[in-house]
Design brief:
- There is one protein chain.
- The chain is of the alpha+beta class and 226 residues long.
- It has one domain.
- 24% of the residues lie in helices and 20% in strands.
- The chain contains four helices and eight strands; from the N terminus they run αααββββββββα.
- It has an eight-stranded antiparallel beta sheet with strand order 2-1-3-4-5-6-7-8, sandwiched between helices.
- A hairpin with a 4-residue loop joins strand 5 and strand 6.
- Helix 3 runs parallel beside helix 4.
């Protein structure tokens, strides 16, 4: 998830570690934190959001969240969408002028800036091999009033690899966050903002879990710098 990027770029918020932290950050991103940031008003392309869970599989037995979240087919679907979006973000960030607008990156020795040992590339920080960088565009940077970012591992000579570790999108049409468990690398999927936050981990049924995943994949697949 994008770091808290103030004008002087001197402070960095720590990553979401719990669902409560995700909710709090989503509230900030929605423009309700009282810090003067404007609410996102536009996005690259329209993605409808389905609020009510829509079942895609007939439930014949009690829902088991662990079995669902660890299902290889489910993991592969989400990883594909995250990988595709991540590579697009990296490509846009490498351009002198992206259709989204300017990009920056915060790099740290742990995923999503969980350590204070890091810094902003725009301030001269040089990523090192093995670090994690969050490459991001935020409304504060100018151009499109959307938020989009990806977590990527740094390879030799401080260059980004194709190892995408997560993705984040926030706009009026959809909001999604995908990170990975440090234990088994299962994708942690959250959609919505503070008012309607939903996470697969708290789903009470197969239908609800599938609906959340499907909305997240739709958001990832349809967010493009058009």
């Amino acid at each position: 998830m994008p770091k808290n990027y103030e004008k002087n770029k001197t402070r960095v918020t720590k990553p979401r570690a719990t669902i409560a932290a995700i909710a709090a950050t989503a509230l900030l991103l929605a423009g309700c934190s009282g810090n003067g940031k404007k609410e996102v008003a536009t996005r690259s392309s329209s993605v409808p959001t389905t609020v009510a869970p829509v079942p895609s599989t007939t439930e014949t037995m009690p829902y088991d969240s662990f079995t669902y979240e660890n299902n290889p087919q489910r993991v592969a679907r989400i990883e594909t969408a995250v990988q595709n979006l991540g590579l697009i973000v990296l490509n846009e960030a490498s351009k002198s002028r992206s259709n989204w607008g300017p990009f920056d990156a915060y790099c740290s020795d742990t995923q999503e800036g969980g350590s204070n040992q890091g810094g902003w590339v725009s301030q001269g920080y040089k990523p090192a091999a093995g670090e994690d960088c969050e490459v991001q565009h935020n409304p504060q940077y100018g151009e499109k009033n959307v938020q989009v970012s990806t977590d990527v591992l740094v390879g030799d000579n401080g260059v980004y690899t194709n190892n995408i570790e997560g993705a984040f999108i926030n706009n009026p049409y959809c909001s999604v966050s995908v990170s990975y468990s440090n234990i088994n690398k299962v994708p942690i999927v959250t959609i919505g903002t503070a008012k309607d936050l939903q996470t697969v981990g708290s789903a009470q049924s197969l239908a609800q879990a599938e609906s959340i995943d499907n909305q997240a994949i739709s958001c990832l697949d349809n967010t493009r710098p058009s």
